[in-house]
Structures are given as C-alpha cells and as structure tokens.
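Recap for those who missed Tuesday's class. We walked through two folding examples back to back. For each one, the amino acid string is listed first and its predicted structure tokens come directly after. Nothing is annotated here on purpose, so try labeling regions yourself before you check the end of the notes.
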Amino acid sequence: MHDPELYITCAVSGLAGLAMLTTAGLSGWRGWLSLKQQELGRHSQSQIDAPALPSAASRIEMADLKERIRKLEAIAAGVDL
C-alpha cells in the first residue's frame, strides 16, 4: 500500500506537467509581449506620419472655451446676449 515507486512516479509526473504548463505560459507571454511591441511600433510610426486628431473631449472643451470668450467679448462690448 505504501509503495515508494508510486509516490515518486506521481511526483515526477506532476513536476513534468507543471514544467509543460510553465513553458506554454511563458511562450504565450512572450508572444503577447511581441504583439504589443509591434502595436506600439505601428502606433508610433503612424503618429510620425500623420498629425494626431484631437479627441472628442478636447474638441468639446475647446468649443466651450470659445463660447466663453465670445460671451466675454460681448459683455466687454456692452451687448446683452
């Protein structure tokens, strides 16, 4: 019932399985890092080629600032809105 060969076999099999899982995980991690590096390289290259478009939030903020300036100019000129 207490066969030491069985315990050794189970331990070695478990370690082999763990080694395979670790190798597969490491390979996947390296592939994912490589993909992200390619995306960053492509993204930085496209920023060099073309000017970046402003985001929607910055366009809304600019429109708000222009509206405020227009109102202040109207107040300075004595015009009621």
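Example two. Treat it independently of the first, because the proteins are unrelated.
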Amino acid sequence: MENLAGSLAGDEFAPRSTYLNTASTGLIPARAVTAIHEAMQSVADGAPVDMFADVEAARESYARLAGVPVRQVATGASVATFVGLIATSLPSGAEVLTAEGDFSSAVNPFHMRADLKVRMVPLERLAESVRPDTALVSVSAVQSADGRIADLPALRTAAAAHGARTCIDVSQGLGWLDFDASDYDFTVDVAYKWLMSPRGVAFLTVPEDFGGLIPAFAGWVAGEHPFDNCYGPVAELAHSARRFDESPSLHSFTGARHSLALVEEIGAETVRAHNLALADRFRAGLDRLGIEPVPAPGSAIVSVPQLGHRQAALLDAGLVTSERAGNLRAAFHLYNAAADVDRLLDALSG
C-alpha cells in the first residue's frame, strides 16, 4: 500500500495502512525505534548504555512541551498510578469532582477510596459545579470517547474561587492541544498516544510546593542521590518532583526521548494547525454526506455517533480507526495527510 504519511513527518513514518487511530496508540518514529533497538542490543552485548540519561532527557523535553520547570515533572508508567498517588494524598472526607463518562484511569482511583466523596457531573457543567467543599477537580482535557474539549479556563477560574485543586489528564491533548500545565495544580499524561512514545512512559506535573502529595510509592529512584539509596529507607528524597518517580521502564524512555524531540523539532503549534486542518476537512466531508459528528470544535479527534459498527469493515479496507461508546472515532496527527481523510470519507460514503 502506498505511503500516506503526512509531510510534517518526513521520513520518520511509513505506515502500511491509513492510520487514523492516534487516540488509541500513536505511531513510533523511526528514530525512536532505532534508539530502542540499539539500547536493547547494548544489553544483549553485556555493555548497557546509560538509559537513565534518556529518562532525564525525556523529562526535560516534556517540561518544555508542558510549559513547566523540569523540577516540577515526575516520570512513571501510567496515568492511573499518578492519579492513585493524588487520591492517596487527599484527606478523608474530601470531595472530588469529575466528569461523567471520563476515562477510567482519570477517575477510578478516587472511587477506590471509600472515604472520599466523588461527585460526577456532565462535562459541560463541570466548572459551574465546583463548590466551597470541593477539594479537587479531576478531568481529561480532551475526552477519549468523543474528542470534546473541557472548558479549562472556566474550570481554572471556578476552582480558584473555591480553593479547589485541579488535576488535568492531557493524554489526549498534549502534542497538539494549546495547553500550559503551569495553570493547574497537577497534570497527568501517558506518552504513547500523541507524543508517539512506547508504552510505559507517563508524566506528572506538580506545583512548586508539591501540592500536598505524599510520595507513597517512592522507591530508590526517588532519592536525591538514587544510587546511594538502594537499601533501607531512602535517606533523602529528591528535592524536585523526581521524588514521585516510579522506577523507569528504561527502554521505553530511550524511545520517548527521541519521540518527544521530534515533536519539539516540528513544533507543537505546527502540529496543532496540521491536525486541526485535517479534522476540519473530515467534519466538512461528513457534512456533505449528511452525517453529524459529536460536536467537538477545535479537537483533533472526531467521533461519529452510531457508526462504530463500521470500524471492523474499515479495518479490512486498510483504514485504522476505533470504536468508542458506539462512536466511530478518527484521530488526526502529524503523519496523516489530506489523502487519508478523503479515503475515509470515500469509504463512509459507500
């Protein structure tokens, strides 16, 4: 099948399909694949390269993309673990406000504590539902099921007015969404979607004062001098957000270092413009077909109600999308081009 990779990606991608499923898993660029292979080979050869340096390089790159100082970034493997850390640090009886139907990893850890009061409201009512006894608002910036974007400025204002902290999951946004993590108390992010990294890479951003988080999962890597803290209690926790690090999946971070560098090289604003132009092209095409997607203006994710059942047939035709909550979900990223959009529209018109 012809190479349908977009011009932004250069020679980094050569998909064998029309890949429109970044909201599930992003494609890994060639440079990251090469780096992972070389790192694994070094271990096989008995001369491992310093992959901890890759963790730090990935942390620094992520900090620049998120708009926060590197000392406020922790590394780990999953959103659920970091949200669990936040949930563990809340006092008994605290109220947590979440959006109905949000991705489980962003909300389930709060439900696992029977002594927390978790309140769920429709996404569009989230800001107006913050009240004086709300301790934390946790929401995905972009909804996984349908691409809707939360009204984050309104949420930030409401939370500040009532003294509530905020936790924003940017797994479906950072890499194309206009987002500044410094505007929020906590942000969580898995990098295997829009940041095109291997699984096993996640990031947490925290305030300068750590926002009351307790490093309950701290192991030896959370020490100020990790290799001096391999045995017994950690004598001195890292003075930065690294105190919240999980022991890293080193090969994954080796790949992530190069994937994040690619996003920086192209520029998040350039990626954003590219992605949204393709999404708007798809929406315009759907309109011509008389099909109405879930309203999600400004999103790189487009979901079409009642067409989820067509996902399997599209896959057989070489078009990779996903089915979520009955919707057919298409996600557009830097390795996509107008030809990808048109091919999907042609298939749907048939």
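Answers for example two:
The domain at 7-28+267-349 is CATH 3.90.1150.10 (Aspartate Aminotransferase, domain 1).
Residues 268-288 form the longest helix (21 residues).
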